[in-house]
Write a structure and sequence with these properties.
The protein is globular and about 45 Å long. Helix 1 runs antiparallel to helix 2, helix 2 packs antiparallel against helix 3 and helix 6 packs antiparallel against helix 9. The two termini are 18 Å apart. Helix content is 47%, strand content 0%. The N terminus is likely disordered. This is Lipoprotein.
């Protein structure tokens, strides 16, 4: 891919346009009722006491209480449990207040206190083992280079993938960091706003106004995040100059990435590699790049890791690139 000049944003108009924050309301889903236990299935010891099931017992008549045993010895209860004729319950007769006769007050669900709660799986952080420099270089490509490309080709499907990858990386970065959290949260706000505007069809205006304003103005809404990412790239690229700059950047980045990866490389860390490979592709390097790029792009597209075998394949080709420069 021919190297592009990404100073496109300087000519674009920039005005501050603050998007409202959308707050998500979380309703109370607790539908438990009070634990009221109706007196169903209890023997009636008092002739004047009304059972909870609505059958009025005015005296010791022989009318069955809808299957509940009465204390009158002249009538057997419908449920087949014989009651003693002297009005006393046998010792083994329990209050039938267990779950078999209790009305279903929880809509057929178990009480929350009785449901075994599984231990939630530990969240995997794909970027835990990588240095901040590695992570920020990939964010530089996503949040600077790829956004500039969108203004040229207007490919919304590609931009959505860029935004999704950005959010995933920023979320992992926020999880592992103890500093720069304010700036990282600004980055997440930027990505959320862009995703929202993409869905509404206003993404181009948002980039030309809010995004560009944050590039131009140090007090812009997302300026602190964009300055942080840009500075990380500038520091990494500072010592690389001349016609072989991008090749040397690639060689240095691959060396650092390989050292930190420990035989498996996250797709989130090869976005910068894919960009540099595209930049150095020319007649001299074409054969080498054509062997590496498909491996890298497949991993990014499928969101899979590079295993030891693929890492070895890439490493062998990059060594050839080093010899050919």
């Amino acid at each position: 891919m021919k190297k592009k000049n990404f100073k496109w944003w300087i000519a674009l108009p920039g005005v501050i346009f603050t998007l409202p924050l959308v707050a998500a309301a979380c309703g109370n889903t607790n539908n438990k009722e009070m634990d009221r236990k109706p007196d169903q299935g209890n023997g009636q010891m008092d002739e004047n006491k009304k059972p909870d099931n609505g059958n009025n017992q005015m005296n010791n008549e022989n009318k069955p209480d809808q299957g509940n045993g009465q204390m009158n010895g002249n009538k057997k209860p419908d449920n087949g449990n014989n009651q003693m004729n002297d009005g006393k319950k046998p010792d083994q007769e329990k209050d039938k207040m267990d779950g078999n006769n209790k009305p279903d007050q929880n809509n057929g669900q178990m009480d929350d206190n009785k449901i075994p709660k599984p231990t939630p799986p530990e969240k995997k952080n794909d970027l835990e083992k990588y240095s901040d420099e590695i992570i920020y270089l990939n964010l530089y490509v996503l949040n600077f280079i790829k956004i500039g490309e969108f203004l040229m080709d207007q490919n919304e499907e590609k931009l959505l993938k860029v935004l999704n990858n950005s959010k995933s990386i920023l979320t992992d970065l926020l999880d592992k960091k103890i500093k720069d959290k304010k700036e990282i949260n600004l980055g997440l706000q930027l990505i959320d706003s862009m995703t929202d505007n993409l869905a509404k069809g206003t993404i181009k205006n948002f980039i030309q106004q809010d995004y560009v304003q944050s590039l131009r103005d140090s007090n812009g809404q997302y300026s602190n995040y964009l300055k942080l990412v840009s500075a990380k790239f500038s520091n990494f690229a500072l010592d690389f100059k001349g016609s072989t700059k991008n090749i040397n950047l690639l060689l240095e980045y691959w060396k650092k990435l390989n050292e930190e990866s420990k035989n498996s490389i996250s797709y989130k860390t090869i976005i910068f590699l894919e960009y540099l490979l595209s930049e150095i592709k020319n007649n001299k390097n074409k054969d080498i790049v054509d062997k590496i790029l498909p491996i890298v792009m497949e991993s990014i597209d499928k969101k899979t890791e590079l295993d030891a075998t693929k890492i070895k394949q890439i490493d062998e080709e990059i060594k050839k690139l080093n010899q050919a420069k």
